[in-house]
Design a protein that fits this description.
By secondary structure, the protein is α+β, with helices and mostly antiparallel strands. It has a single domain, classed as Ribosomal Protein S5, domain 2 (2-Layer Sandwich), CATH 3.30.230. Strands 1, 2, 3, 4, 5, 6, 7 and 8 form an 8-stranded mixed beta sheet that branches. The radius of gyration is 17 Å and the shape is globular.
Length: 187
């Protein structure tokens, strides 16, 4: 099974969206894909890559115990998300699986490495992505909304509703992204 989630760029409303205001966000051509395959093993193997290099790997049991990993904090975050999914859909954990995710953007750019990850897991597990986000990372959900949107959207945090927005090419052709070397995050 293959899944894809778009990254996001919030045009306005970054801090107000957390207070319940609508925001305008654009799904990007940058994103993350995930492939899930059945395994003959009775454990789960996870591999995440960027730029054709593995940046995270983990092996965990069907009971979500970490067997081996390249990064313990990331593995604990992953198994925490899997525990949430297992509560909702325990049938997904009856046989081994291989997961492979691949990003086509640098994680530090702030395009949504966490939100695309949540979206991919929600797509695979048929879990409500907003519930998964709320129980894990938290946040407004606009980035999760962008992950499966086909157009720019106005997003409402209270209802998780999106309204497609048309942006004139005269405007969008002038949008430029410059990475300053710092990812900003609301505390």
């Amino acid at each position: 099974m293959n899944f894809y989630a778009s990254g996001k760029l919030l045009l306005f409303g970054e801090y107000l969206v957390l207070k319940g205001s609508g925001c305008l966000a654009i799904p990007l051509s940058y994103g993350q894909k995930m492939q899930v395959e059945s395994s003959k093993n009775d454990f789960f193997e996870w591999k995440s890559s960027y730029n054709d290099a593995t940046w995270f790997s983990c092996v965990f049991s069907q009971t979500l115990e970490i067997i081996n990993t390249s990064d313990l904090p990331k593995a604990q975050m992953l198994t925490g998300l899997m525990e949430i999914i297992k509560e909702i859909n325990p049938g997904l954990f009856e046989s081994g699986l291989n997961f492979h995710t691949e990003m086509n953007f640098q994680p530090q750019w702030g395009f949504g490495s966490s939100s695309t990850f949540v979206s991919l897991l929600a797509q695979w597990s048929k879990t409500d992505p907003y519930l998964l986000l709320k129980k894990s990372f938290g946040g407004s959900g606009y980035d999760v909304a962008c992950s499966t949107a086909n157009t720019p959207v106005m997003y409402d945090m209270q209802s998780h509703q999106t309204v497609p927005v048309y942006l004139f090419p005269k405007v969008t052709s002038k949008i430029l992204f410059v990475y300053s070397g710092k990812k900003k995050r609301q505390q």
